[in-house]
Amino acid sequence: MSVIIRESGLYTSIQDLGRQKYQHIGIVKNGSIDQLNHRLANMLVGNDEEEALIEMTIKLPSIQFTEPTLIAFTGANFPAYKDHKKITPYKIHLMNKGEVLSFGETSKGTRGYLAIAGGIVAEEWLGSKSTSIRLEMGGFKGRTLQEGDEIELCRNYTAIQKKLFENLEVTETTAWGIDQYTLALNYYTDIFHVISGEGMTHFNAEEIKHLENQVYKVSNRFNRTGLTLEGKSVINRKIVDQSFLSVKKGTVLLNQENQPVVMLNDHQSLSSYPQIGTIASYHIDKLAQKKQGSKMIFKKLTIQEAELNMKKHAQFVKQIKTGIRYKLNEELNK
């Protein structure tokens, strides 16, 4: 049995947390852009955090279930419907045989994440089920999901998942979930902390201050490779002696027009474009939810300042995960 894609959406693909060990040979990581929401969706339905799921972008798909299935969806605040009945994100839902999950539009955010209890069957390449569109490998035939595609379910149900099927037989949803307002604190600010990199030596203090004083907006050139921003040029000169430097998710480059470009998962491994620095790890996930017209403000931080913030962020995420584990344990003991 399977789930069937009835409407494909704009850019729907199977992703896990990506290929971790191959960037040094030019193979991009791929994987979910918003990895926090990926992890939370999986945790809610009792999966391992790393399990492959369906990443959905801007215009979300409609999906039919051919057997009873437990799901959770997270990410941007897309209104969701189970056979036209509105349901709530960040909770566990029982989808019955034949029911269709569909989504409306949202004014904030870009990506949603759908986890299915027990996991989904997908092609694995270099230790990951993530879809590499460029290389046509992994996921579902190495491409985005299209109308009519059928995705097989693993059905590797754990004790807690079997108990959830039993507990939700009547109510079809849990009374509890993740507090969206608390989680929103991690996403709905426009300030992004930047840590200096090797390329920062090409910029003087006045130019960095100029960067911090600007409000940039995401242009229509944004995808899984990166976000190109619009605003005042960061510098009014050309840097000619820039050597090739490594690139990673969150690297901030300057393009030929001296506009910032922020790299995402499907980035190249090296670049000779000037590099300002790298977005701090605790601000990476909210990059995933920026869309055309979204504002971005850069603030330079020292490594020491970033480490302090990173510890606070890690504690914030730990509290959310601890809460999920506690509620799942309650479900198991009902």
From TrEMBL:
Cited InterPro entries: CT_A_B, Cyclophilin-like_dom_sf, PxpC
Domain Carboxyltransferase: 24-316
SMART domains (alphabetical): AHS2
Family matches, as Gene3D superfamilies: Cyclophilin-like (2.40.100.10)
Keyword rRNA processing: no
GO molecular function: ATP binding; hydrolase activity
Keywords from the named record: ATP-binding, Hydrolase, Nucleotide-binding
Hydrolase recorded as keyword: yes
Name of the protein in its database record: Allophanate hydrolase
Organism: Mammaliicoccus vitulinus
